[in-house]
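Quick one, tokens below. Sequence please?
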């Protein structure tokens, strides 16, 4: 079972654990249009690795790309997407492939929509006031 972690607890883990890394599994369009977490203060960049392809298929090279980003099975790896659904599936795949410490950032980068349908205001990385930037 994948460990579920809030964005603020994820930020704490990224700062407190030298081996912790954040993997954003959204799409390039989301990274460019919405933004990405800014983990520069932790001394490590966020890894941008697509989990779900535009046609809905899972990225067939996802696990290989984790390794290409120098992520190893013994590291604490936190996965984030828009709302926490794709990242949970990506964390499960990584765990199945032998990565031992996988976390899903609940509510993701943007969180659920508010009463007006806008994301980023109710919960998630942005709403928690954590650092982020446009890619």
């Amino acid at each position: 079972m994948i460990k579920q972690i809030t964005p603020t607890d994820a930020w704490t883990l990224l700062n407190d654990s030298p081996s912790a890394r954040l993997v954003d599994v959204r799409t390039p369009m989301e990274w460019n249009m919405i933004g990405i977490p800014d983990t520069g203060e932790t001394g490590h960049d966020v890894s941008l690795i697509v989990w779900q392809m535009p046609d809905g298929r899972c990225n067939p090279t996802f696990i290989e790309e984790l390794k290409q980003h120098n992520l190893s099975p013994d590291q604490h790896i936190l996965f984030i997407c828009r709302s926490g659904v794709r990242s949970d599936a990506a964390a499960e795949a990584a765990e199945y492939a032998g990565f031992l410490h996988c976390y899903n950032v609940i509510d993701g980068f943007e969180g659920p929509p508010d009463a007006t349908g806008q994301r980023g205001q109710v919960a998630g990385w942005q709403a928690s006031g954590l650092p982020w930037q446009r890619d």
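The chain has a mean pLDDT of 95. The CA atoms of residues 112 and 118 lie 8 Å apart.
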